[in-house]
Amino acid sequence: MQRALTGVQPSGHIHLGNYLGSIVPALELQRSYRAFYFIADYHALTSIRDPAALRESSRQVAATFIALGLDTDTHCLFRQSDVIEVCELAWILACQINTGMLDRGHAVKAARDGGREPNAGTLFYPVLMSADILLYDANVVPVGRDQQQHVEIARDIAQRVNHHYGEGTLVVPEVSVRDEVGTVLGLDGRKMSKSYGNAIHLWDPPKKLRKTIMKIVTSSKEMGEPLEVEGDNVLNLYKLFATPAQLADIEGRYRAGAVGYGHAKQELFELVDGQVAEARARYDALMANPAEIDGILEAGADKARASARATMERVRAAVGIR
């Protein structure tokens, strides 16, 4: 069976944008591939300085995937840092490329465009990501368009290694640009983001989830007035959870003035809560038992290490290191 790989950075509470844009598509991989899911805690060190927060966020990511149905017996869920071979491979890969390739990385460009000089970890990010991909002989790497460049770099490095040291030293992965949900908008109509403070957290308890949804920014139209369907912040989220029939029904009531914003937000809350309630109970149970999460991650790391060691045996032999 072909292998697919995806990684998720641990960066705090998971919101609906993360859930719809990356987690749900990632979980679909297990239907068709032997899937490797890693929590990118080494990558997170470029910005996170709180060790307790990093450990907690890593467990939150793991618990999220498990609660949402990842089959950890068949597939591999692990911490990036639990497979130390990734750092060894990253060094070998770094010796195959020039610095210009790294200087053109979009994370470096974004930092400089924002007036910040990137740290060395940010500059090195594409090499470590290439090692993440190539270490596990991934055939397919599904990513959003913002990460496509990194997979193309991994392909280029693998081809260089194979050219210098022999075909088959590394598996050259295919990039699969996944269909986007579209930008998931937050409470204020901008892209949902922790930095904007407009996020709806996936695992908030019902009372808090409802309170947050009730903060969605709307127009000042009163109950009984027709409401605009296009560009409405409530409907922008509603359509991501609703069936076509449910969406058509509420849009009809919007146009007829048969629903107010308060009622629409309540319906949105009920829709979201209904879809996540069972998974939230599993998530809460897991987070209450961190030892269980750590055990699952360690078992996943054992499987990942077996694959990593096989790759490194080939690579070491090819480059001349015993």
Protein architecture, described:
The protein has 322 residues and is mostly helical. The protein has 2 domains: 3-183 and 289-319, Rossmann fold, CATH 3.40.50.620; 203-284, Tyrosyl-Transfer RNA Synthetase (Orthogonal Bundle), CATH 1.10.240. 55% of the residues lie in helices and 7% in strands. The chain contains 13 helices and 5 strands. The chain has helices at residues 16-27, 41-44, 51-67, 85-94, 99-103, 106-113, 120-134, 148-165, 206-213, 233-241, 244-256, 261-287, 290-319, and strands at 3-8, 34-39, 76-79, 140-143, 174-177. The strands form 2 sheets. The chain has a 3-stranded parallel beta sheet. The protein has a two-stranded parallel sheet with strand order 4-5. Helix 4 (85-94) packs across helix 7 (120-134) and helix 7 packs across helix 8. It is elongated, with a radius of gyration of 22 Å. The relative contact order is 0.14.
Q: Uncertain regions: pLDDT < 50 for 5+ in a row? A: none
The overall number of domains is 2
The beta-strand count equals: 5
Q: Please tell me the CATH architecture of the largest domain by its name.
A: 3-Layer(aba) Sandwich
* CATH class descriptor of the largest domain: Alpha Beta
Question: Shape from CA axes?
Answer: elongated
Within the CATH hierarchy, at the fold level, what is the topology of the largest domain? Rossmann fold
Count, helices: 13
Secondary-structure element pattern, one letter each: EHEHHEHHHHEHEHHHHH
Strand content: 5-15%
Largest sheet: 3 strands, parallel
Q: How far is the first residue's CA from the last residue's CA?
A: 30 Å
What is the residue-mean pLDDT, rounded to a whole number?
A: 93
CATH-wise, what's the superfamily of the largest domain? HUPs
